[in-house]
Fold each of these.
Amino acid sequence: MGLTPAETRARARLLMRRAVLSRAGQDRSEDPESELTRIEAALRRIDEGRYGICDQCGSGIGAQVMLENPAATLCGSCLATHGHQSA
Ligand SMILES: [Zn+2]
């Protein structure tokens, strides 16, 4: 998409922060600390060039999935096959 890695990282951090904030207060079963831990893990994935790549099948995770869950590590079909993420 013509974004530099730094731009991708900044953009993802923004998206993830927004996702966390929008979920805070809605889902009280989710510990904000563990959510932030997942975000940091996702940011490391960006550094490693694996961001947006499914852990299970290695194909690209759809943009829609990444928007809904910016820290996603599974693509939509693997998510459907394997249920919720355990990470
Ligand atoms: Zn997959």
Note: The chain has a mean pLDDT of 79.
Amino acid sequence: MARRREDRRGGHRIGRRAVRLPEIRCVGIRRFALVRLTILPDPGPSWHLVGTGDFNNDGNSDLVFQNSDGTPLIWTMNGTTVAASATLGNPGATTRIVGTGDFNGDGKSDLLLQAADGTPVIWTMNGSTITAGVALPNPGATTRVVGMGDFDGDGKSDLLLQASDGTPVIWTVSGTTLTAGVALPNPGPTWQAIGTDDFNGDGKADILFQSTIDGSPLIWTTNNLTVATSTILPSPGLNYHANTG
Ligand SMILES: [Ca+2]
Ligand SMILES: [Ca+2]
Ligand SMILES: [Ca+2]
Ligand SMILES: [Ca+2]
């Protein structure tokens, strides 16, 4: 078998042929070759991972699943160990968990659900206990809640919705109260809103779209509930589905 050894530059040599092994670079870490891979227990095929958040504010992200029958399940995590597992009351199979956000700014993640008729519902959480369940006004069954982000920078999550004609709408929320609803310019129904994230680090959520025509991602940065910049990125192809972290 060819002898393999590490050369001065961190490359590897097999016989006479120098090869570069894959490596991963991270900010602040020059180079590492070993990645810890932890496979968690299998909750079963009827459980779908629908979000992550810190429900008990211990600094460790927790996992939230929803069963095909509608039952939510929270895994309270300690690093990569499942410290506790708790199911919540079943809102019904036609009510989907959209994701997590901190709507009341207490540092503990809350849940946002949307019923089949379009009604968004906020469940404020204390760990895996529902402390309040409040329905917001119904934008209609054809308007989808896309995700949550803090658009006005007050430390409380707001909602991003998209109507079936493509119009994005921001709902600012304080606690469980809808405080404002602002429709943004319509990019058209072929730009599907994917989610929110803070792409320019200004503390205010921005919007990620993806074209249903060619797969191009589109980022809108926002400021004061208006579109500040609009940037179309190169298309990775229609088979690649954008997501926000
Ligand atoms: Ca946690
Ligand atoms: Ca909260
Ligand atoms: Ca906010
Ligand atoms: Ca931003």
Note: The pocket of calcium ion (ligand 4) is lined by residues 198-200, 202, 204, 206, 221 (CB under 6 Å).
